[in-house]
Amino acid sequence: MPVEINYDGLSFPNAFRIDLLVEDKLILEIKSVERLSNLHAKQLLTYLRLTNRPLGLLLNFSGETMKEGIRRVAN
After folding, report:
1. Which of 3, 33, 71, 74 has its CA 20 to 30 A from that of 9?
2. In Å, what is the CA distance from 50 to each residue of 10, 30, 63?
3. Mapped to the 3 state alphabet, what secondary structure does the chain carry?
4. Strands 10-17 and 2-7
């Protein structure tokens, strides 16, 4: 889902793309990397702050189990 950012009187259409937005409340950021890093969590936190949403999930599909590949990020 493309997201527009308005800052200091300037408009940036398609500034970034959210992977999935659930019920207009929860942002899902999908990755497939060997290990999730703090950079991935910071990316999701930035998306949460810019869209003024409270909660997001970082999902990594590269782990052995899905349980170890889920990280909750709150704004």
Report:
1. 74
2. 14, 18, 29
3. CEEEEEECCEEEEEEEECCEEECCCEEEEEECCCCCCHHHHHHHHHHHHHHCCCEEEEEECCCCCCHHHEEEEEC
4. antiparallel
pTM comes to 0.83
Looking up tokens 């999935």 gives 20
Measured on CA atoms in the order 4, 54, 34, 37, is the torsion positive or negative? positive
CA dist list (Å): 21 to 10, 38, 41, 56: 24, 21, 16, 9
Q: Please give the share of the chain, as a percent, with pLDDT higher than 90.
A: 53
